[in-house]
Queue: 2 jobs
Job 1
Amino acid sequence: MSAVFSGRFFDSDVWHSFKGSPSAIVSAAVALVCVFCAVFADWVAPHNPMDLASLELADALLPPAWLAEGKARYLLGTDAQGRDILSALMYGTRISLMVGVASVVVSVVIGVALGLIAGYAGGKTDALIMRVCDVMLSFPAILVALLVDGVGRAIFPAAHDSLAFAVLIVAISLTGWVQYARTVRGSTLVERNKEYVQAARVIGVPPLRLMRRHVLPNVLGPVTVLATIQVATAILIEATLSFLGVGMPVTSPSLGTLIRVGNDFLMSGEWWITIFPGAMLVLIALSINLLGDWLRDALNPRLR
């Protein structure tokens, strides 16, 4: 079964489009390296920046290894606590990717479900769901996330890192589902009038089964493209919240937290503490966005 699937994939138009796109290949390679280093940071990272017992305060604020006062064991330098910047980037990227992917998964589940119901049911149900979407779209996503995250931290001031992680996902997902709902709703309005849906209705297929087995597979193309791009958006929102001090705590730093901590030392000459996390954030967001742009063109039959 796996051999048949792989054979079909490597013969597909998507694979041929990928091979013919240098930007897609480079961005995929960069994204894979970042994901690999983040997932396997416990084994790949030179040091464990989360282990306070292993930190050397005497090595604090060391510049990158290629500068005069740098040390070879700290390739990108250290921060004020003596943490290796390169290792901190790997661990911080892991947290940022987890928040981004988890929030997108939650948004996809909610948005696709509501979009299917709105497009298939129509009438008052469609109008109600779309009005809720309009209300959510009237508020800037970052302000809604900031409000939810701030309220969550006010209710649970001594929250554990895992609870802060959950609150952050909820804050980002609260407005993220709207785009999926509107996209799926529009595609469902088109699909529900096609012959295969009408035939399924005639033979008595229940509405939930019809939406799940017949309509859903045919509306997942735009959702896949949107989800790919929204991962980068979610990572940037998480970094913004962490930079403002309402995201991940310093004990479990994400890329946004590392940028916020390093910003205090930027004017004093320790530029590497904030520049390298910022560059990593840009690199991840850019590679994911380029992959999303390529996937959108590859799945568009008009561009083949």
Job 2
Amino acid sequence: MADHKPNRKNALGRGLGALLEDSPAKTKSQEILPEAAKTGIFEISIQEIQVNPYQPRVHFDKDALEELAESIKVQGIIQPITVRKLGPGEYQLISGERRFQASKIAGLTQIPAYVRTANDQQMLEMALIENIQRENLNALEIAQSYQRLLSECNLKQEELGDRVGKNRTTVNNYLRLLKLPPTIQAAIKDQTLSMGHARALINIEDVDKQLAIFKKAVEEELSVRKVEALVKALNEGKPGKDEKPSLDPVRKYEMNKIQQRLASHFGTKVALKSDAKNRGEIKIPFTSASDLNRILEILEII
């Protein structure tokens, strides 16, 4: 009976192809597996592979790795990892760390791999790009990877966009996240705050007000649209040189919400005014005697 080997994809993510050489480095494995000369894929002992020192992602979800390991036990490695040859029987991982770690958990002794040649800078660039394209990174991890590509790999934003398949505006939006205070960055990292919320907060120049609105957004689980409204109220409420300070944007937002609730409760437009010292007034208009009686009944006055 002829052996049937599963077909393996030979393509890497967009951007990596330009960095990898077309021809794999010749290895000892090629003598053992003649088919490798055609596919460019070699079976390498897991014990001979070192982890990538340039791996951008340090922490991997344990449960996700266990799930991947179970999948590998059943289906095998569908997409080979990529390594570079350091010496006889010695390789270093370029990309595919999750598959590599899950394969060890699954008890594999060998793993299919593309063998490439690359210098340290190419190693970093390939690891960063592969990570951005293949892993479920949060917005801050993507931003940090973009920054490393710019600073450590000497790429320009246009070049970076080409490498990762994103336009310059998208790349810039991610990079701007790194200007946020550490507290907000931490919230993005643990996914307490979404990319949409963060993008709205970036537009606030005052750090204290930025943090105030951030805290309100998290505590009250505000939608992105509501946070954008808060930020807009703040930016539009900036006083000019001869103007008095306006109501704090967070307080203004709270007053607007109360006004909306009052209007819904009384079934008519309600005017609510408040100053910085929490002094103000509530106006409930009526259109007729019957409408007034209706409002009085709601107030339980009659």
